[in-house]
Amino acid sequence: MSVASTSSLPVLLPRKSLPSESSPFEWVPTRDLSSPSPPPPDDTTIEQEMAAARQAMDGRAVRKVRPRRTVDYSGPIGRWTLLRKMRPNSTHVPYLRPAPPYIINLLPPKAYPDNPSTSLCTKFVHTSTNKIRCPVNCVTWTPEGRRVLTGSTSGEFTLWNGLTFNFETILQAHDSAVRAMQFSHSGLYLASADQSGVIKYFQPNMNNLNACQGHREAIRGLSFSPDDARFATASDDSTVRIWSFEESREERVLTGHGWDVKCVEWHPTKGLLVSGSKDNMIKFWDPRTGTVLSTVHYHKNTIQALAWSPDGNFVASASRDQTVRVFDIRAMKEFRVLKGHKKEVCSVAWHPVHPLVVSGGSEGSILHWDVSSSSGPLPNAPSPIQPRATLSQAHDSNVWSLAYHPLGHILVSASNDHTTRFWSRERPGDAASVFSGGGEKPPEATVADEDDDVFVPGFSHVGWDEGPSMNGNGPDGYGREQEEFIPGFGATDSASSAPPIGGMNGAGRGDMSSGPVGGRGGPLPSQESVFGQGDSEEQWGRGGGGGGANPNGYNGGYGGGPAAGYGGGGGGRGFGGGAGGGGHDGGGYGGSGGGGGGGGGGGFRGGRGGRYGPRRPRY
Description:
Elements: H1 45-57, H2 74-86, E1 121-129, E2 136-141, E3 147-152, E4 156-161, E5 167-172, E6 178-183, E7 190-194, E8 198-202, E9 208-213, E10 219-224, E11 230-235, E12 239-244, E13 249-255, E14 261-266, E15 273-277, E16 282-286, E17 291-296, E18 303-308, E19 314-319, E20 323-328, E21 333-339, E22 345-350, E23 356-361, E24 366-370, E25 384-385, E26 389-391, E27 399-404, E28 410-415, E29 419-425, H3 525-531
Parallel strand pairs: 21-25
Antiparallel strand pairs: 1-29, 2-3, 3-4, 4-5, 6-7, 7-8, 8-9, 10-11, 11-12, 12-13, 14-15, 15-16, 16-17, 18-19, 19-20, 20-21, 22-23, 23-24, 24-26, 27-28, 28-29
């Protein structure tokens, strides 16, 4: 076998050594030249937690570990910042479609200045509970809005994450129950007070700076001045005291209340104090002179909480007389009376953006109120207004404290039932919030009295006592006034020639006839020849409708037989059943065979469905 000469073999050169015609125009990467690394393996944390839970449960069913729900405000803020740059005018707000998937387009409350309803925080998000359960007396957001700080009766501070709502840290801050706490307006310091009258200063990292004995008895309220140079405290020793923050020195004692002072709040921008007491009075103070400027005596029981509106023009008060009252300090008059709580009101807070007030009651309810000028009339004597939203079982016990996120999209509540709960805005187009552990379910239709005339769709009130009806009470058994019909259940032009329903004639017509049953007349003539007429004999077919009110109780029932109860009977035995009669008690049984009959309709008390068919509701 001869070997080919080397001159006949093709010349093989490296590909890179041959320049391409389009090489000057090709893109060449300059970084990340190595091949991409594969994605990291799946996180095994959840599997490990599930394995540990199964081992601890010893073979019993284990709940699946689910990720925490997160309410992040950065997305809406970023979208709102972009839209403010691109909107055609300063008042333009994009339309939000009322459907849950469009929650991605939901903007912060600040973007809807004319629509307070977008800021009703009624959707339950999360419940946070300490391992050592004890009542939570006060709650506040950190100034940057990333965390929530709670104070409990055990004297502990608990810090919760404001996005994922998980536990972050706990601190034994006081030796007795924490009763009040507030961050300074600068956000650099935290002041807190306890049951024994001790006041403490903290830094945001929970480093204790100072402690002093402020009152002889429990301190119930604490509030900073607008410049953070001073703060005021209210105590069960019937006094309000003003303190120099830097020196921890008492500057003035305000005496004037005749009983325990339960709350005190400094005006957000001015030198004005308001305090509420067990003597049922609200007092306005001048902190410079320590004198009383005005006294308001509208409540009939202890004032439990006070809150200034963000603009400082209104102050809301919560009392044990089950009311929340809003005062206009410009005219020093009562502006709104909010009645809706079934027991005493324990806490109150204002929304940071909209004219909304939220209140918490001792029965565990949380009520949202709209106190804008358009929410109701403004008479000389303010009339009560209804709450915009109600969470009747938000907690199992007293709601001691409420606090809105600085942006206004989340509400946090602290309760005597040892829990801290978070509430967010509803998704667009969502129904009423449903909270499985308590909370308001969608409103149900009220049960009317049996003798009330209630409108039911399909059971018209037109012609209540006029002329013939469609339930066998007309002169010829069929009514002639209603021309609309459902195929198989409507009246026809030949209705006058049809025999009476269930053997009922004009002579046997009752005097207690109900209104016409819309679309429920006798069968069409073409069906009568197939299914037969309703009479006293039981037939396999569509039975006759019941008669009117007959004290003897006849003319109805199974195909026109004896009726059950006083009034018209139901339809006959068969697949079709029958349209029930309209009497005082409505129809009897609709039918017992096949698919069952429609129940007796149109009476003051509707009848029942067939034995094997659906039962009609009672109206």
